[in-house]
Amino acid sequence: MQDAFSRMELLVGNAGEKKISRAKIAVFGLGGAGSYATDALARCGVGSLTLVDHAKITLPNVSSQILAVHSTIGMSKVEAAKKRIHDIDENILVHTYETFYNEETAGMFDLHAFDYVVDAMGTLSSKLLLISRAKEARVPVISCLDMGNKLDPSRLEITDISRTAVCPVAKAMKMELRKRGIRKLKVLYSKERPVKERIFRRKRNNVPTKPVEGNISFVLGTAGCFLAGEVVRDILSTGMNVRNG
């Protein structure tokens, strides 16, 4: 008898489908890559998804984020994601936190409760905090690095952070992680050199502000699917009792 996941079961087997259906995944950051990763994980029928993001959907998100359509503008990203997930599979348990992850809010999350953590946040301090907490809890974590100003999805790669090149965020993270005694971290990054920033710089009170990065749907969508694929393959290959060191 066919169901929503019968085609997937042909690929991963009944035992594999059951493993996935018991998986508890946390996704921190529901921007471009994080929203696509969440969607892909839901379509694999994971057991539960915990979603963390403080932002609401805005008009510029429409060009690059799967949650963003004109009817969702103004909605919180976590609530839009929850609605979409339950439209895919009403049996997935969804926990939402409309909050910014930092030192003040990190205590809200018991990372031991998760089988995998996806870091798709854009703030370096939040990423470092989450990675450190996940390592302490010995929970597998994958971190998505900067996808801004990139046009070539074929240049994406999953590797250990020690093997990254080109990416300035990776360089900064390596230095900060070493200070925290963390030498290994699975990351998704782009080997593409950023497209030169041109029109993205804006002024406020005639004072130049930080350039706004450009982004595009097919890079962020590919990144999200890479993240989800790595999580599911790890769950299938190791079960859910293996913890990162």
From TrEMBL:
Identify this protein by name: ThiF family adenylyltransferase
What species is given as this protein's source?
Blautia aquisgranensis
Query: What keyword terms does UniProt attach to this protein?
Result: Nucleotidyltransferase, Transferase
Gene3D superfamilies according to UniProt: NAD(P)-binding Rossmann-like Domain
Task: Select a single GO molecular function from the record's annotations and give it.
Answer: nucleotidyltransferase activity
Q: Which InterPro entries match?
A: ThiF/MoeB/HesA, ThiF_NAD_FAD-bd, Ubiquitin-activating_enz
Q: Where is the THIF-type NAD/FAD binding fold domain positioned along the sequence?
A: 11-240
**Could you confirm whether the keyword Cytoplasm appears in this record?**
no
